[in-house]
Amino acid sequence: MKKKKYRDQAGLFIAEGPKVINELIAEGLQLHSIFAIDDSVGVKNATVITQTELQKISCLTTANSCLAVFKIPKKELTEDSGLIVALDAVRDPGNLGTIIRLCDWFGVAQLICSMDTADCYNPKVIQATMGSIARVEIQYVDLVSYLKDAKCPIFGGVMDGTNVYTQKLPENAIMVLGNEANGISEAVQNVLTHRISIPQFGKNKATESLNVATATAILLSECKRSTGR
Amino acid sequence: MKKKKYRDQAGLFIAEGPKVINELIAEGLQLHSIFAIDDSVGVKNATVITQTELQKISCLTTANSCLAVFKIPKKELTEDSGLIVALDAVRDPGNLGTIIRLCDWFGVAQLICSMDTADCYNPKVIQATMGSIARVEIQYVDLVSYLKDAKCPIFGGVMDGTNVYTQKLPENAIMVLGNEANGISEAVQNVLTHRISIPQFGKNKATESLNVATATAILLSECKRSTGR
């Protein structure tokens, strides 16, 4: 279950540690099974196993005190409204986890991922996002087709776009962020309706572009600040 | 040299891979020594060593093609002006690296770190920041004393502060960010002149607070957007 292939086949994913497990239960996710090293670690109805057994099934270098297997929730694509974030081939689980937490913080209900974006049930993403993963609706789609069918403006974070601080941002929109090394792919760039950039204030042109998670933070902050909701 | 103690004693730090090495040379940092697996990897005047030898001295799980040792530059505390970022016990090298890149992007010339903040010459920080490390002046200080002596307003990112979107932000100011788990320490909170927060738009109060690097991204963006420089 450490691999996407087996998670998909079984329809299950792993979460570790009492905090994340209890948050996911509180969010209404369905438990498949739960294990703990003793009765006092802070989770209910766990099967008691030894530390050695727990380490064997754990995805962490050093296992926590408990591990739960949850069913991957079946999600239906709800009608698009409000601000939607779309990711084009974001590969790093840490970045994906940070972006899911940002969506939760900024009240973005839907996160749309291209098929080649990192899997949101990757153990690293689950551990990084805590309960946020259950509060943000995440869908994997053919991103170009999805965007072609969209009825709202499609903004994309690029290096040579309009200054985001001066661009009017609507309430209902899709915000696209691209791959860590290559940005938004050409096919997706072709279906954007607005190209926006975060201006660089430092004078050195050798400066690396912003990391995709920090760029997402700034763009979501701007959308929410300027529309006030 | 993988440990701070030995880096400090020797006054040296390690950078790996042609891109970061060449950026640091271009920024004027002094080379102590440089090694490469052959003459064609893209760095000049390197001593040729074998891949096995390189892996032995490398800090990376899989060594790049070259490794350089640089002298830690001696920095003098320049007069405070513009926007300054101060970190109170930020422990994660990845977060520190991201914050250094953000400072470089937003033209923040000075980064002040408490003595218990992660070391900026940690190999993970060097690899994450690329040339940014040479463009941002980084100082480790007794943060409470430093802030007590400061002559400009001191803003701190806290959970229960004024909404950053409505707070007037001056051009000359210090922006303090705190530890990953505990935020800004009480001693430092006592010397803040303004407490600010990034408002939460999602309705779920169980949502984890923003990561320190994403919070820094949003606060720097707000300062620069609102002061326009």
Task: Describe the model.
The structure is a homodimer of 229-residue chains. Chain A has 229 residues and is α/β, with parallel strands linked by helices. Chain A folds into two domains: 4-71, 60s Ribosomal Protein L30, Chain: A (2-Layer Sandwich), CATH 3.30.1330; 83-227, Alpha/beta knot, CATH 3.40.1280.10. Chain A is 32% helix and 23% strand. In chain A, the strands form two sheets. Chain A has a six-stranded parallel beta sheet. In chain A, helix 4 (93-105) links the parallel strand 5 and strand 6. In chain A, helix 4 packs parallel to helix 5. The longest helix of chain A is centred in the C-terminal third of the chain and has 16 residues, at 212-227. Chain A binds chain B through residues 23, 26, 94, 98, 101-108, 130-132, 135, 165, 198-204, 206-208, 210-211, 213-215, 217-218, 221-222, 224-225, 229, and chain B through 23, 26, 94, 98, 101-108, 130-132, 135, 165, 198-204, 206-208, 210-211, 213-215, 217-218, 221-222, 224-225, 229.
Q: What's the helical proportion of residues of chain A?
A: 25-40%
Give the oligomer, counting copies of the same chain as homo and different chains as hetero. Answer: homodimer
Order of helices and strands of chain A: HEHEEHEEHEHHEHEEHEH
Query: What's the story with the biggest beta sheet of chain A?
Result: 6 strands, parallel
Per the CATH scheme, the topology name of the largest domain in chain A is Alpha/beta knot
CATH level-two architecture of the largest domain in chain A: 3-Layer(aba) Sandwich
Strand content of chain A: 15-25%
Q: Quick one: overall form of chain A?
A: elongated
Question: What is the CATH level 1 assignment of the largest domain in chain A?
Answer: Alpha Beta
Spans of chain A of 5+ residues with little confidence (pLDDT < 50)?
A: none
* Cα distance spanning the termini of chain A: 38 Å
Strand tally of chain A: 10
Spatial strand order of the main sheet of chain A: 7-6-5-9-8-10
Report the structural category of chain A. alpha/beta
Number of domains of chain A: 2
* CATH homologous superfamily descriptor of the largest domain in chain A: SPOUT methyltransferase, trefoil knot domain
Task: List the total number of helices of chain A.
Answer: 9
Mean pLDDT level of chain A: 93
What radius of gyration of chain A results from the CA coordinates? 19 Å
